[in-house]
């Protein structure tokens, strides 16, 4: 889904300034253990959640409340 990809890329670009490796490389890489570190796990979860929110919004799903 292009909307998801664009949102994930945008968030990742901002987070990459604070990480040692690009988030996309770690999140979508072959080595799952790269996500064991808190910095990458939390960053990937945040980027995924924002991208999922944007995807749902593009489908017209508007939540009354967002938490988490």
From TrEMBL:
It holds the Pfam family Acyl_transf_1. Coiled coil: none annotated. GO terms for biological process: fatty acid biosynthetic process. Residues 2-68 form the Malonyl-CoA:ACP transacylase (MAT) domain. Keywords: Multifunctional enzyme, Transferase. One of its GO terms (molecular function) is fatty acid synthase activity. It comes from the Bacteria. PANTHER family: FATTY ACID SYNTHASE (PTHR43775), INACTIVE PHENOLPHTHIOCEROL SYNTHESIS POLYKETIDE SYNTHASE TYPE I PKS1-RELATED (PTHR43775:SF51). This is Malonyl-CoA:ACP transacylase (MAT) domain-containing protein. It comes from Streptomyces microflavus (Streptomyces lipmanii).
């Amino acid at each position: 889904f292009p909307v998801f990809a664009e949102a994930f890329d945008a968030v990742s670009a901002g987070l990459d300034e604070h990480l040692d490796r690009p988030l996309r490389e770690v999140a979508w890489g072959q080595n799952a253990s790269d996500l064991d570190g808190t910095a990458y796990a939390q960053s990937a979860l945040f980027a995924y959640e924002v991208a999922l929110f944007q995807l749902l919004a593009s489908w017209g799903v508007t939540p009354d409340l967002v938490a988490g």
